[in-house]
Design a protein that fits this description.
The complex is a heterotrimer of chains A (762), B (170) and C (324).
Chain A lengths: L2 E9 L2 E9 L24 H6 L14 E7 L5 E7 L1 H5 L3 E6 L18 E2 L5 E7 L2 H10 L1 E6 L6 H5 L12 E9 L2 H6 L3 E9 L11 E6 L4 E5 L4 H12 L6 E4 L15 H13 L3 E4 L2 H7 L5 E11 L2 E14 L9 H5 L5 E10 L13 H19 L3 H9 L10 E2 L4 H12 L9 E2 L5 E12 L8 E6 L5 E5 L8 H13 L6 E4 L16 H28 L7 E3 L2 E4 L2 E4 H7 L5 E6 L7 E2 L2 E12 L5 E11 L6 H20 L31 E6 L23 H13 L5 E2 L3 H14 L1
Parallel strand pairs in A: 3-14, 10-32, 12-13, 16-17, 18-28, 22-23, 30-31
Antiparallel strand pairs in A: 1-2, 3-7, 4-6, 4-8, 5-7, 9-17, 10-15, 11-12, 11-14, 15-16, 19-20, 20-29, 21-22, 21-27, 24-25, 25-26, 29-30
Chain B lengths: L17 E7 L2 E7 L5 H8 L18 E4 L2 E4 L12 E3 L12 H9 L8 H14 L5 H8 L9 H15 L1
Parallel strand pairs in B: 1-5
Antiparallel strand pairs in B: 1-2, 3-4, 3-5
Helix pairs in contact in B: 2-5, 3-4, 4-5
Chain C lengths: L4 E3 L4 H9 L3 E3 L5 H6 L7 E4 L9 E4 L3 E5 L4 H6 L1 H6 L1 H8 L4 H6 L2 H6 L5 H4 L39 H6 L4 E6 L2 E6 L22 E7 L7 E7 L10 E10 L2 E10 L9 H7 L6 H11 L11 H18 L2
Parallel strand pairs in C: 1-3, 2-3
Antiparallel strand pairs in C: 4-5, 5-8, 6-7, 6-8, 9-10, 10-11
Helix pairs in contact in C: 10-11, 11-12
The chains are: A alpha+beta (762), B alpha+beta (170), C alpha+beta (324).
Bound molecules: flavin-adenine dinucleotide (FAD), iron/sulfur cluster and FE2/S2 (inorganic) cluster (FES) (2 copies).
The site of iron/sulfur cluster has 13 residues of chain C, from helix 8.
């Protein structure tokens, strides 16, 4: 019997309480014994599909008679759309439909009731859409639409928007307080401190640039709307479509088979999905709306630029107080990722005061980007901690160690389910050779090149939780179909779920077929917040156990042996002295399907589930050209049990490399006068290339099951590895050169400026 | 240099759809497309070969890399009509009789992808490299895929896969 | 891209005839297709030059220097071992230019004639001065990649990696049109946009580049190419420097220093080169030359760093000519 229980989960830095439906009983923690699959390096089960071009991504869905949709976007950062003339566009051969604010049906979207605003608020805001027989025609038609805009004053820059002279974009101003935290007495601690570091840090806007752009292909058969969408959450898209189109769930199916990266930005329905659906329903032909790279960079989300002020105080060999104020440019976003999260929770410091402000501007909205807020906040916090260590004259790790060992979450007061952060420090220091670190850095490969070491810490959630469900079907030939409503965004979800299923059921990995990414499947959570494995994995294990028990029952009947004397191993039912393949047993029973079901059970509400880690960097800096070369990154993470060391290592390397872009090269530029994004492309928005990869990346895991987290002892790994890298690099650069660069990315211009300042000082 | 002016000259084709003949993965195929259609869109939309990905459509990412006359090119910056008479190879043509190409095998073994969207392009770049340099060094592989962005950051494994595919083929 | 007709002639004259009536030349297409996709060029007809016989490949005749056909793919200049012996700077300059794929597709002629990468220029929605508008948006806008020297109304920079290397070897080009042929110094092909000259190249309508020539005397030079990028591959130069000289008994003759990425044209200062004539390219002489090359530079809001970089790269390039 299903029952309703209270659940408390952390998601991307916030805690949520909810009612969830669960069934049956949870399994005890998977014991420490050796497994066939879990804990072993396994190639991806979908590897062949991905290397042969057979994997079907949303972009690859071409349906018969499909229309191509292109969107006309505002060329102005703020304007009123007074009139739209589509006559010429409609007259173009091959154009089948045009939608805009004067003819589109009302559609609820993120708190507004239309997808085409009267007042467009950023360059890239949707103004109209054209459906045509081919893409070139749709694009040509956009040029023929005439729009009468009334221009309004705008502001795109964070610091300008905070200032007094900027136009007010919201009735209550551009700046809104989003969250605050206070503990202890910061003012007193500052007064009594031996040293106080006060510094301003900045991080630039980072754009996801998933290689597959956002997009959807919609088809309507008069009854059911099927939407293929590149998404991290098929159920979230379904919810959004229901709201926008007022269709019941039973008439909406959302499918995401393979997807080409999301990194947080593909969390729910997009205007493109609604537009494609509207055309499909209106014109009776499938419609495809896939964003171009330019559009992706204007309108599909970004990591907010931040301005952060930190005052950090130390006395003796301890941190005594931290004050952290952050302003984040959310563009036209309606929420803010909290950069003060790490300050509030990472260190057990007695006196803390933090404030996070959301600043709206006439730029594209933020969206979650791999550890939103924490990447930006950790850069500031962990640079500041190093600056304080230097002022106090103590080793940066020694200073951190004082505050990093606490078993309790300083924010909620709850105990951590598990924590091995000090162990991460130990392993990382050993691997990077921290003993070599000297104040003033080390000599590099030439007299004008200096080397330095730096490190930084990471805290993040990733404990996952309900609701998440799975079913395991056994076919009469002994093959297995594992079904769940989750999606594989490149993290290897299919593979680890298959491993869990194979182990629990006692079948070969090759016999487990995984079906995900479809709202016809049992509900699965968003693949974000590093929750996928920790949410879905335990449900899969229960479903597989359920199937196994039913199977043993069947085997007992067929073999006429008590179920208690049977076990399944490698797809074979083993009884005393006999080995019978599953297929043989199931074959004896006519046309059967064994279905195992599993639900994720709630977390212990008295505990705080967190992931921890530390990154260490060794860099070499050319003092004359400002070029930074990252020689070595050591990444150590404490994320519970490792299910697949091969894919886990890939995940960490990928996080490190995305962080490297944030640290050194990635930065969106917006022209202030026109509000136009100057580098909304892959030429001038510089994501790392293969040649930017550090000479060496060492990945280490503490690899101890979190006994109190869930029945597998696993936690998430998607986001932790992008969090501390940038600060570790900046700290290493400061160690190498004496130049402290407080603005990520650390570009040539910033490095050369800081070097000039450092030289003038010495 | 030929100095004789030609009397008729080469035919002017288009701007509407024209019939073009191509050799793709060893097969003679034809498509009816306007001259402005790129090789990438022709492969994907007219020939149903969706393995090559469209990511930037302007020569800045490498996901559309295919091999034309044994050399790697960006199919998004190549007109289909300009490929008449040339040999085009795509990711779909690598595996033979259900056997993965050594580079494909090496990618799976080395876990050289995450989302897999850049993967067809990366593989084609390395296949082209191996034709000229059968046993490439790490530096050779890096040079070959420096024109193939991977946002997931699978680069270390891609380089490892390229080197091991070379070894394996020997 | 707009709809257009397409022809792929095999005879040069056929191509020239079409160009005379307004067709646009297509070589590797790596720049042209980008411009067309951005809506900046909307041709009625494209003439594909890659089928024309005799415009591809290179040859060397003793005493007559080196000739490179305009349709030669860049990858051939980079990869050919004999050329590597003859003029190693080509390989050095092209190694970090774009990517293997782009160098495979892109041709020498196309590289010389590629348009600038100013992001206001490439943005169809910005009606800047070079495109016939009233003002330059970069001067007061986002200008970290723009010119620090030699610019007038337009502060875009010369983007090519090949051009500085070729100019440092006194390259000349041959041009053909339906009216006939002419020759010029490669350096004279480039125009710093100003006044009524809202263009970057001195090519006349209907004209093709057929070949590039390096005089025999220049082949005796030692050369080097240095490029600074803001990531380690696939970036246009923030600053690049081609330096070349004949080193005779430890002193430099015929010194050339040509910079890319800092001015609207490949940047050369004759006085600085003369000042190095007969010098041993010691530290002081190189530092002094760097000052002279960059004298009068006026960085914009965001590109002051280019001056520091340029000084250092000039110094390094020159010093490396006399390094062991
Ligand atoms: C993402 C990217 C990065 C790049 N990075 C670099 C870099 O780092 N360094 C660098 O040097 N370059 C770089 N490039 C530029 C690239 O090298 C040039 O686009 C290429 O060399 C142009 O050659 P093409 O044959 O493709 O020219 P096309 O695109 O075919 O032609 C370019 C122009 O020249 C004209 N044209 C071509 N050939 C002739 C001829 N023989 N006579 C008259 N007119 C002609 C065409 O009409 C057109 O106007 C990059 C390009 C891209 C897209
Ligand atoms: S630099 Fe030249 S191309 Fe760029 S905006 Fe100014 S005028 Fe236009
Ligand atoms: S899609 Fe062709 S290079 Fe990006
Ligand atoms: S694997 Fe995702 S972009 Fe390379």
């Amino acid at each position: 019997m299903p029952r309703v229980v209270k659940s408390r989960e952390e998601f991307e830095g916030e805690v949520y309480e909810s009612l969830v439906l669960v069934e049956g009983r949870d399994l005890p923690l998977l014991d420490g014994g050796e497994r066939t699959e879990i804990g072993h390096e396994r190639r991806r089960v979908d590897g062949t599909a991905r290397v042969t071009g057979r994997a079907r991504y949303t972009q690859d869905v071409y349906l018969p008679a499909m229309l191509f949709v292109r969107v006309l976007r505002s060329p102005y950062p703020r304007a009123r759309v007074r009139r739209i003339d589509t006559k010429k566009a409609e007259a173009l051969a091959g154009v089948r439909g045009v939608l805009h604010r004067f003819n589109a049906p009302k559609a609820a979207f993120r708190g507004e009731d239309t997808i085409f605003r009267e007042e467009v608020r950023f360059v890239g805001d949707e103004v109209a859409a054209v459906a045509a027989d081919d893409e070139d025609t749709a694009a040509e038609a956009l040029r023929l639409i005439e729009v009468d805009y009334e221009l309004l004053p705008h502001v795109v820059d964070l610091e300008e928007a905070i200032g007094d002279v900027a136009p007010r974009l919201e009735t209550d101003g551009n700046v809104a307080e989003a969250s605050t935290h206070k503990r202890g007495d910061v003012r007193k601690a500052m007064k009594e401190a031996d040293a106080v570091v006060e510094a301003t840090y900045r991080t630039s806007t980072q754009i996801h640039n998933s290689l597959e752009t956002h997009g959807a292909v919609a088809s309507w058969d008069g009854e059911v709307l099927t939407v293929f969408e590149s998404t991290q959450h098929v159920f979230g898209v379904r919810q959004g479509l229901k709201m926008a189109l007022k269709l019941p769930f039973s008439k909406i199916r959302v499918v995401c088979d393979y997807m080409g990266g999301g990194f947080g930005s593909k969390g729910g329905v997009g205007k493109y999905s609604i537009i494609a659906s509207l055309f499909a329903m209106e014109l009776g032909r499938p419609a495809r709306c896939i964003l171009t790279r330019d559009e992706e960079n204007l309108a599909a989300g970004n990591r907010s630029a931040t301005l952060q002020q930190i005052r950090i105080a130390g006395k003796g060999r301890e941190i005594t107080a931290i004050e952290h104020t952050s302003w984040a440019n959310v563009g036209q976003g309606k929420w803010v990722a909290n950069p003060t999260g790490p300050t509030n929770t990472l260190y057990d410091v007695a006196n803390v005061s933090s404030k996070s402000y959301k600043v709206v501007t006439n730029a594209g909205a933020l969206s979650a980007f791999r550890a939103p807020g924490y990447v930006e906040g950790t850069f500031a916090l962990e640079c500041a901690v190093d600056e304080l260590a230097e002022r106090l004259g103590i080793d940066p790790i020694a200073l951190r160690r004082k505050h990093a060992g606490s078993p309790k979450d300083p924010l909620s007061g709850k105990r951590y389910s598990d924590k091995h952060l000090l162990e991460c420090y130990r392993i990382g220091a050993e691997e990077i050779g921290w003993r070599r670190r000297r104040n003033g850095g080390m000599r590099g490969s030439a007299p004008h090149r200096h080397r330095g070491l730096g490190m930084a810490t990471q805290i993040w959630g990733g404990g996952g939780g309900p609701p998440a469900y799975a079913t395991v079907h056994l076919n009469p030939d002994g093959t297995v179909v594992l079904t769940a409503g989750t999606q594989d965004i490149g993290t290897g979800t299919r593979t680890v779920l298959a491993q869990i299923c194979a182990d629990e059921l006692g079948v070969d990995l090759a016999d487990v077929h995984v079906r995900i990414g479809d709202t016809e499947n049992p509900y699965g959570p968003i693949s974000a917040g590093s929750v996928t494995l920790a949410s879905v994995g335990p449900a899969v294990r229960i479903a597989a156990r359920d199937a196994r028990e039913q199977l043993l029952g069947a085997a007992a009947g067929v073999l006429e042996t008590p179920a208690g004397e049977l076990r399944i191993d490698g797809g074979v039912v083993v009884s005393k002295g006999a080995r019978t393949p599953l297929s043989e047993i199931l074959g004896k029973v006519e046309n059967n399907t064994v279905i195992g079901k599993g639900a994720r059970h709630p977390n212990d509400p008295e505990l705080s589930q967190r992931t921890f880690g530390a990154h260490f960097a060794e860099v070499e800096v050319d003092l004359r050209t400002g070029e930074i070369t990252v020689e070595h990154i050591v990444a150590v993470h404490d994320i519970g049990r490792i299910v697949n060391p091969l894919t886990a290592r890939s995940q960490v390397e990928g996080g490190v490399l995305q962080a490297l872009g944030f640290a050194l090269t990635e930065e969106r530029f917006v022209d202030r006068a026109t509000g136009r994004v100057m580098n909304g492309n892959l030429e001038n928005y510089k994501v790392p290339t293969v040649k930017d990869v550090p000479t060496k990346i060492t990945v280490k895991f503490v690899d101890r099951p979190d006994r109190r987290a869930n029945n597998l002892g696993v936690k998430g790994l998607g986001e932790p590895p992008i969090i501390p890298t940038a600060a570790a690099i900046a700290n290493a650069v400061a160690n190498a050169t004496g130049a402290r660069i407080r603005h990520a990315p650390l570009t040539r211009a910033r490095v050369l400026d800081a070097l000039a300042v450092a030289e003038a000082r010495s | 240099m030929p100095q004789v002016p030609s009397v008729n000259g080469a035919a002017l084709r288009g701007p509407g759809p024209i019939d073009i003949a191509l050799t793709v993965n060893g097969n003679a195929v034809s498509a009816r497309v306007p001259p402005r259609r790129t090789l990438l869109d022709t492969l994907r939309e007219s020939l149903g070969l969706t393995g090559s990905k469209r990511v930037c459509d302007e020569g800045t990412c490498g996901a559309c890399t295919v091999i034309v006359d044994d050399r790697p090119v960006y199919s998004c910056m190549t007109l289909a009509v300009a490929c008449e008479g040339k040999r085009v190879e795509t990711i779909e043509g690598l595996a033979k009789d259900g056997e993965l190409h050594p580079v494909q095998r090496a990618f799976v073994d080395a876990d050289a992808f995450q989302c897999g969207f850049c993967t067809p392009g990366q593989i084609m770049s390395i296949v082209a490299l191996l034709r000229a340099t059968p046993a490439p060094s790490e530096a050779d592989v890096r040079r070959a895929v420096a024109g193939n962005l991977c946002r997931c950051g699978a680069y270390p494994n891609i380089v490892a896969a390229g080197v091991s595919a070379g070894r394996r083929r020997k | 891209m707009n709809a257009f007709s397409y022809a792929r002639p095999t005879a040069l004259a056929d191509a020239l005839r079409r160009l005379r009536s307004g067709a646009v030349a297509l070589a590797g297409g790596t720049d042209l297709l980008g411009l067309m996709k951005d809506g900046l060029v909307r041709p009625d007809t494209l003439v594909d030059l890659t089928g024309i016989e005799g415009l591809r490949g290179w040859s060397r005749e003793r005493g007559k220097g080196l000739r490179i056909g305009a349709l030669t793919p860049l990858i051939e200049l980079e990869g050919n071992p004999q050329l590597g012996q003859l003029m190693p700077i080509l390989r050095e300059a092209l190694r970090d230019a774009a990517t293997v794929q782009l160098r495979t597709m892109g041709t020498v002629g196309g590289n010389l004639l590629q348009r600038n990468r100013c992001w206001y220029f490439r943005d169809e929605g910005t009606p800047c001065w070079l495109k016939g508008g009233t003002r330059c948006f970069a001067v007061d806008g986002e200008n970290r990649y723009h010119a620090i020297i030699g610019a007038r109304e337009c502060v875009m920079v010369s983007p090519s990696d090949l051009v500085p290397a070729l100019v440092a070897y006194d390259a000349e080009i041959s041009l053909a049109s339906s009216r006939g042929r002419r020759h010029m110094k490669l350096a004279d092909l480039f125009v710093a946009p100003h006044g009524r000259e809202r263009r970057e190249h001195a090519l006349r309508p209907g004209e093709l580049i057929t070949e590039i020539r390096i005089p025999e005397a220049a082949l005796a030079r030692k050369g080097t190419y240095q490029k600074a990028m803001d990531r380690k591959a696939w970036s246009f130069a923030l600053v690049s420097v081609a330096a070349a000289a004949r080193i005779e008994r430890g002193v430099a003759r015929d010194v050339r220093v040509v910079l890319g990425g800092i001015a609207p044209i490949p940047w050369r200062v004759a006085a600085a080169e003369k000042g190095l004539e007969g010098s041993e390219l010691d530290e002081a002489a190189c530092a002094d030359a760097a000052e002279r090359v960059l004298a009068g530079a006026t960085p914009l809001r965001d590109n002051g760093y280019k001056l520091t970089l340029a000084r250092e790269l000039v110094r390094r390039a020159l010093r490396s000519l006399v390094a062991a």
